[in-house]
Every structure is written in C-alpha cells, then in structure tokens.
C-alpha cells in the first residue's frame, strides 16, 4: 500500500467543479491583477466577468503565481488529514513559476512525500493529467503506476491554439515583439503551440478558417499515430464558436471523444478574448 495520496493542481487546469469534487482534487488558485487589484482565479473572478472587466480596464491585466506559503499551508493541511503523498500537477514551468513554488514548498514539509509534476502545458491538457492521477489515487494504485500513466498521457499530448490579437502575448512577455507586429500588420492568424515548455509560433496562416483546418490536419495525424483518443476544444469567452467547432470535429472524427473547455482569466490575460484551442491525448 502507498498510504493515502492527494492530488493537487492549480486553477489554470480549468476543471469543471463537478469533476474536481468527485475526484477530490485540491486546487490552488493563481491570480489576475486588473488595475492594481488582485483577484484569485475561480474564487473571486470567473471567466465571463474577467473578459468584461478587461474591456474597460485602464491597464493591461497581468497574472501572478501562488506564493510558496499557500502551498505550504495546503500541504500541511493534507498531512494533518492523514495523506502520506501529494502529487501536485501544474502549468508549464516555461510560462509560470507555479511549479517551482510547489516543488520548493514540498521540500519544506517533513513526513510528507510531495511529487511536483510539470504538465509542460496548461488548461485542460493539465486537467487531463490531474483527473487521471486522481482517478488512480482513488483506486489505490501505486505511485509509480500513477506517474507512469501521467508520463504516457503527457508524451501523447499536444495542444494548438490561435489568437485573435497577438498583442496580449507580446505585452505579457510570452511572445517575441517583432512577431506580434508582423502578425497584426498582415492580419495573420498565427497557430501557436507549446514547445520545450514555452509558447512559440508554430505556423502563420492567413485566415481563421485555414488555421482551424491546419489544426484538424495535425489532429488527423495524431489519430493515425494513436495518440488522440480524447480532445478538448478550448475557447476564450466564445462558447458558441467553441461548441460549433466541437460539433464539427465530433462529426469529422467520430473515433475521438470531444468536450468543450475554456481559457479562464489567467491564461486569458495572455491569449485574449476570441482565442480558440484544441488539445488531445490518449485516455
């Protein structure tokens, strides 16, 4: 036996409340700062309100990671409840210090085995890892098996997204400034993805329609390689557009399960309203 295992993730996994509660996943929120005021994601600010507030904000919103003290408090609380191991899964260490803060905090708790896991992605790609870990932990599976399963999912995972406006990524320091300028001048719809834990330009496409088609072609290859069994369409405050693409994909690729998710406030500060993404992996 492993002893009790707890699963922790952060708010950028954008897990549905029902899933979080059913699987007993503990969530540490990141924050967004709008005009000097910090809001804890999901706790003090939901996605719809965030996008409305940004429209009238004086300054560009920014995001901030949880302090190590928040992790220490949560880990101590889990230890007091009889947990012996914590698997804490976070957004890519290439775009946030959250993973590092979780790892550092874990080293300070005596008598608790804290395994910090870098998703190397974010949003429901990270959420898929957290739900898998939690399902296995509830079934009393050994730690090595859980980490092995996470590694398999991560290896098969991919995520592509396009943004309506490159300025958010440029101002947030997540994309090179020259690329942003070129994109806005030529009305380019860039396709972005995670490479080596960072958000980079994958390809420049002229229209949104062509960008979506290109992402579908990449998905087709993943299906042929048996690395796409479940996928999430992710939208930036445009559920209608997201659902429309989800339905189209479900018809075109009936062998894949497609669900709808969203870019919440923290990731929304970087991608902006109207962004659309697709992430997939094995089940």
TrEMBL record:
<dbReference type="InterPro" id="IPR050270">
    <property type="entry name" value="DegV_domain_contain"/>
</dbReference>
<dbReference type="GO" id="GO:0008289">
    <property type="term" value="F:lipid binding"/>
</dbReference>
<keyword id="KW-0446">Lipid-binding</keyword>
<dbReference type="Pfam" id="PF02645">
    <property type="entry name" value="DegV"/>
</dbReference>
<protein>
    <submittedName>
        <fullName>DegV family protein</fullName>
    </submittedName>
</protein>
<dbReference type="InterPro" id="IPR043168">
    <property type="entry name" value="DegV_C"/>
</dbReference>
<dbReference type="InterPro" id="IPR003797">
    <property type="entry name" value="DegV"/>
</dbReference>
